[in-house]
Structure formats: C-alpha cells, structure tokens
Amino acid sequence: MMPDTSEERALRDAALRGDEHAWRVLFDRHADAAYRYAYVRTGRHRERAEEATQEAWMIAVKKLSAFDPARAPFGAWFQGILTRVLANQRRRWAIRDASEAPLDGREPADETGPGGNEVLARAFTELPPDYQDAIRAKYIEGFTMREIADRFRRTPKAVESLLARARIALREAYAAEAAQTEEQSRHE
Amino acid sequence: MNDPFDHPDFDHEIARAADLPPLDPDARAAILSATTRHVRRRRYIRHMWQAAALIAAFISGAILMPRAATSPTEPQQMAATENPIAPVLEPAPPETTLPIYNDPEAFAMVYDNATPGERLDLLKAAGDYALNVESDIRTAIDYYKLWIDLADEAARTQYNRNDTWLLASLKHYK
C-alpha cells in the first residue's frame, strides 16, 4: 500500500482544481501519522503537537502546487514541512516556557518522565502511514494476520510481507535516530 | 545504546513505541475545515477566471461582429451573402438530468437506446454524479470501471483534466 505516484499526482491535481474530496483523501491518509510525528517531537505535548500540525497543514494546502510526487511521496513532503514548523515553534515555546508562570494546572507534557524508548517512538513516527497502521494493528490492537488482511484488503501473505518490510524500515529509522541522538548529546 | 530489536521482549518495546494517540477528533475536524475552505476558494477563483474568460470572449465577439458586418470590404460581404454557412447541428448530448441517475430503470432504458459514444458519456456522467453529488465512491468506481472496459486504449490511458480524481486514479491503475 505504498503511495502510488500517479494516484498522488491525480489527487494533487484535483485538489488544486478545488476538489474537496481529493484533499480529504490526502488529509485522512496522513493526519494521524503526522500528528504522532509532532507529538513525539514535542515531548508528548498534545497542545503543541496540535498547533504544529495545524500550521503544517495550512502551509501544505497553500503550497500544494510545490508538491511533486515524482520527487517524494506526500507523506515525506508533508513531514518536511512539519519538521520546519516544529523547529520554528521550538524557539517560541522556549521563550514561552521561560516567561510563563509554572503550575497553572497543566503539565508541560501529557506524560511525566520518559515515555518508554523515545528513540524508537521517534523512529516509528518516521514510517509511512501504512507501515505504522500495520504495526499498530499487530502490536497494539493485537489483531491476527487474518484480521489485518481483512482490514487492509490483502492476503495474509501480503500482510506478513508488509510487516516484515515495516520492521526493516523501523530498524533503519531507529539506527538513524539513535545516531542523531548520540550526535546531539555529544554536542551538549 | 541497546538495540531494542535484539531485546527478547521486542514486541512489548515496539508496542510501547507505537502506542501514540491519534489526532484529537475535534482538532482533526477543525484542521480539515480550515484547509478545505482554502481548497474551496481555489475552485471559486478558478470558476471566476473561467467566467471572466467567457465574458471577455463574449464582449470581444460582440464588439468585433458588428464591425465585421459593417466592413466596407466588398468581397467579404459578397461571400457572406452568396455562400451562407449552413448551421452545424450538434447531436443532442445524452440526457443528463438528475432523475436518470436516481432511477436505475430509466437510466438503463436511456443507456440501451444510446449509441456507443453516448453510452461512454452516460457512464462517466453517472460516475461523476455518484462521486460528486452522492459521495458514493463504490458506485462511482463501478460506473468508472464500466467506462474503462468500454473505452478505447487512448481514452483509457490519456490524462484528461476534466476527469475526477477517482477516474484519473483508476485510469492510471489500468
């Protein structure tokens, strides 16, 4: 279920012509994955993740003509926008955190303390939406291969193959995140 | 750093890593609404430009036609009176009123009496109606697939700007 370049091009062109349904398909496909990406990178701060996600989607819809499916899938293109938004907002939040009085009843993050393996969580959010959906279906929702196959409208064999590819992609993303984290801690 | 992939409890690790909340439904609806407004605005602007182009064409035609009629050039005038151009009769487009798409029997009757070319137009129009008016993607897919089966190779593979996003994606899948 990797994005089809021609399908994404058709959706982009339709949305540029004002087709709301086409835009909705793009949005629904990537909304949750994009939010999770922001959620992990804001230290699991729901409000900030929503703020960043909203800003990124507004930029994406205005600059949709710049999206070229031949260069990258929509998810990767959108993630680039979201990463820049997060970087810009980090500066604002740092100023806000320093100036605002603490203890207004809201925790700075939804989960206190480290939420498990954060590097692995960040790596997970780097994956394309269909890999994330497959992993969540197996490891969180606990569906059987048959149930996942029914949901994805694929054969169990195809789902096995999808999960295998998702795990490989996750391993690669984890290695990259781990290296980046180590690099950052060396500079600090 | 310990590699969680080598951890005996990897399934648990990955479940924890992947256990992230989805976008809040209210936030999701608000973002979709705000971005869709922008998409809709594009459509209005596009229609305005089309309308402006039509008006401009009409005005320029209205200005030029009387000038052409009163032109002192004799040969043109003689040609106009001696060789009147017969009006071209376009074949009537297939019936596209709403009741046909809502009434399968009426649609079938029109379809049976249509020429092959008209049948293609009917199938495409029915698919467009199902998608754009009734938001019924499954029905739209059925009509578009019938269209694809009947259309020639050129029509099936050529990108047409008037195609809905759904038809365009099905054509590419072909």
- First and last CA, distance of chain A: 40 Å
Query: What's the helix count of chain B?
Result: 9
Can you tell me the residue ranges of chain A where pLDDT is under 50 for at least 5 consecutive residues? 104-115
> Biggest protein-protein interface?
A-B, 55 and 45 residues
Helix content of chain B: over 70%
Q: List unreliable stretches of 5+ residues of chain B.
A: 74-83, 86-98
Multimeric state: heterodimer
Number of helices of chain A: 8
Shape of chain A: globular
How many runs of DSSP E, i.e. beta strands of chain B?
0
The proportion of residues forming helix of chain A, as a percent range, comes to: over 70%
Beta-strand content bin of chain A: under 5%
The radius of gyration computed from the alpha-carbon positions of chain A, rounded to a whole number of angstroms, is 18 Å
Structural class of chain A: mainly alpha
Task: Label the overall shape of chain B.
Answer: extended
What share of residues are in beta strands of chain B?
under 5%
**Rg of chain B (C-alpha, Å):** 28 Å
How would you characterize this protein structure?
The complex is a heterodimer of chains A (188) and B (174). Chain A has 188 residues and is an all-alpha fold. Helices cover 73% and strands 0% of the residues of chain A. Chain A has helices at residues 5-16, 20-41, 46-62, 74-99, 118-126, 129-140, 145-152, 156-187. Chain A starts with a helix and ends with a helix. Chain B contains nine helices and no strands. The relative contact order of chain B is 0.05. Classes of the chains: A mainly alpha (188), B mainly alpha (174). At the A-B interface, helix 1, helix 2, helix 3, helix 5 and helix 6 of A face helix 1, helix 2 and helix 9 of B.
